Amino acid sequence: MLQSDKVQSSEEGKIRLRNAYKEAGLTIEKLAEKAKVSQDTIKRLLGTKDYLNGVERRQVESIAKVLDIKPTDIVDPKDWNPQQIPPEFERLIKDKTESFSGRKFVFDAIEEFFSKNPNGYFTVVGDAGMGKSAIAAKYVLDNPAAICFFNIRAEGMNRPELFLKKIREQLMSRYQLQDAADADLSTLLIKASERIGVGERLIIVVDALDEVDQESTGNLLYLPTILPERVYFLLTRRPYNQNEKRLNVSPSVSTKELDLRDYADRSSQDVKEYIWLLLNDKEYQQGLSQWIQKQNLSNPDFVEEVATKSENNFMYLRCVLPAMANGFYENKPLDELPVGLEGYYYSHWEIMGMTTKPLPKNKIKIIYVMCALRSAASRAVVAKYSKQNELTVQEVLDRWAQFLQKQENYQPPRYRFYHESFRDFLHRQDIVQAAGVNLPDISAEVADNMTEGLFGYE
């Protein structure tokens, strides 16, 4: 955004501006004099004089500085900082924020940290499925000024050079940075910090540090050890040991971690709120009501029981509740529902017949080939590497739909596993042994062709 770009005050901003200059003991004339703007400019922001094309951003900043308020107290934040989400992350953010609820205690802690420290790293830690990516996505959606990068191992979007490229593009666009096309992250942040408006912050959201693919030493994604003032990072990651932390910073840089596992009571409240939300969602309401009635349960009892079985895991709820509504657990009583995310995965594995004798080797191989492929692949490609016919592959794709993301912007459509935690489940030693697969052989079977770029024909 350029300082000469035009903006308009929001209805709420008009009221705040009027109250602010009166509380400061100023008149319109005095405010105009101190801010070095015309009286007409202030009247336009107050709504007492018609706009032409708006008011320049620099004028709003000058007025806000005199009144010791933020420009976004006058102009709607979404107009002041138009959303600039990279297209690579739009689908993920939309998906993660649908039916989002709760987590107020997390956002309150983030805001408190940003408000009390001149710069720093705030990290949200939690197990798979506890909602870390949803928190990151929701923060980006609600804070248009935020810069973002989501590590997505399944798409190969998890290397330092890609991170720097995407962050550089966003910073150069938002702050109109010159001579920065080859700048490293520290230089970019310094340049951007010089253009941060009055009362503003530069916040960079980085999701899933645990998925970063980086062999060399140093901080993950080469995150800077020193940050300029008013520059903050919001990070998410799974629990780690000290050797895996790889985030060392200068004593001048503030850091804080919020471990979701330490907030069981608050997470439980959020989980129950989410269950109630889906109970009243038109898409699931009828199916869930029928299941509850069949179990002779009340809605409150259902919420309590399912919340307990979820172990405060939102991914569990996103899988189990729609499955209930669609009749997947039609013949299972409440006490036989899976417990926890891994319990859900194993239950699904069994229900899909993956443990029956004789083992359905062809279908098991299809699942593991998709796991080895990593990138999204079409039905034809999955059939090619699993050496199964496309009809069998499509049957597996249909039955495992809730674990798959279908990318219909490609023709033919491509599929990939939606949950990285499901990949982790597939690599669990007992599951691998019971399935009778040889992971190195499957990986080797696809690796050569993948590196030769044989997806090009799609």
UniProtKB/TrEMBL annotation:
GO molecular function: DNA binding
Cross-referenced Gene3D superfamilies: lambda repressor-like DNA-binding domains, P-loop containing nucleotide triphosphate hydrolases
Protein name: HTH cro/C1-type domain-containing protein
Source organism (scientific name): Brasilonema sennae CENA114
Boundaries of every HTH cro/C1-type domain copy: 17-74
Cross-referenced InterPro entries: Cro/C1-type_HTH, DCAF12, Lambda_DNA-bd_dom_sf, P-loop_NTPase
Family annotation (PROSITE patterns): HTH_CROC1
Record flagged with keyword Repeat: yes
Keyword Repeat attached: yes
Top-level taxon in the UniProt lineage: Bacteria
Keywords: Repeat
